[in-house]
Design a protein that fits this description.
49% of the residues lie in helices and 10% in strands. The protein is mainly alpha-helical. It has 3 domains: 51 residues; 83 residues, Orthogonal Bundle (DNA polymerase, domain 1); 173 residues, Orthogonal Bundle (hpI Integrase, Chain A). The protein is elongated, with a radius of gyration of 32 Å.
Length: 379
Amino acid sequence: MNGSIQHRPDRPRPWKARYRGFTGREHSMSFRRKVDAERWLRDEIGKLDRGVWVDPHGGTVRLAEWSEDWLRGLHVKPKTHAGYRELLDNLVLPTFGNAEVRRITPDKIRHWIADMAESGLSASRMRQATGVLRANLQQAVLDGRLGRNAADGAKVPKTVEREPRFLTADQLRALVQAVENRQHGAGLLVEVAGWSGLRWGEVVALRRRSVNVLARKLSISEAATEVNGKLIFGTTKTHETRTIILPREVAEKVGSRMASLQGDDLIFTAPKGGPLRRSNWSWRVWKPTLQDLEGLVPDDLWIHDLRDTAASLMVASGASILAVSRQLGHVNATVTLERYAHLYDDDLEALAVRLDDRYAEDAAAHTRPKSGPSVIGLS
């Protein structure tokens, strides 16, 4: 792509270099010396040729306007979209909304993170907000509006991960009974979640047609999420269908519940009908039940801990990491291993015993006298 240099003796900076970018818009710069004009023009045309040129005026768009385009271009689940919207409105745009994207610098981002930390915001929340800002700026980089992402390398305080709570089979049984005492039919929901590892959204979206009682199998292809007070049914977290196994007695209980249901009917519903909502169920059933069981189960038990409980029960039953991963619906076994590797510690002891036994058997076989024809000496 060509450019030109014009000499204007009557100007303080007499050498003006100009060229047109990919958009057809002309870009120019004036210099005192011709050699500087030539160098600048050569560099700009080189960037165009290498595909790394950035429109000098592209970064003038304000983040509030840019973020709307960014949101419209996303292909994510409604709950995720609503989460991004909330982060933008409450944390990102109040600080950067009126700023041109090119004016958002690493030092301004550092000060923003420091302000969030000083306000007492959790590390997890700060990480989410910074991630949304980074994604917006990265899209501006990809679109040729920015040469670099100012949020790259932004440091946020480390998140202290909550230790998962693992219930024993006896604790789970007590929880199931206590929940059932609170609300008829709720005990089976907890029992299914605690033995299958289904996510809450998958449990409440479970339908009659998805259950094969004789095979003890559930076909999981749907999940429910609550977005801005509205319950939305869609695909699972991984957008894939998977088949999971239930203990026989649990499957039979589900079968009994299905007797009065038809094809697309939900297995678990609210007392007056309709799908269950997590917030309502948590306040009316879950939290009061934990108070009823004070001392028997952790008082800070989350509904999601039933998923961890299912993983621990599967591991204790001898399931491989791959089987656990498939049952839980993880993207791959690495995710499962990172979270539940410590549950396999006992396997090392069992492996040591098996190796000792095998070694002893092998050693005995090699020291045992071999049978063969006897040799008779001559006198």
